[in-house]
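Quick one:
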Amino acid sequence: MFSTLLRRSAQQSTPFVYTNPYKARRLWPPDFTKISPKHQFRLERKYKRRAKLKWARPRWTKAVKIVQMGSIVCG
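Output:
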């Protein structure tokens, strides 16, 4: 993972005018060498769940199912 590069860039102060009023509570991604395997697993599971929700396409999936059933019934 590019964790070291991202972590270093996140820790550097911004030299330009933009400042985020909503500061992050934790540095992301965390340093996986310093956390326990159990906590690593929890973070990975949380990331996978969020990624799955983000990339879900319910209308596309429904349309594909309808087309497939239509081709089976009519074909």
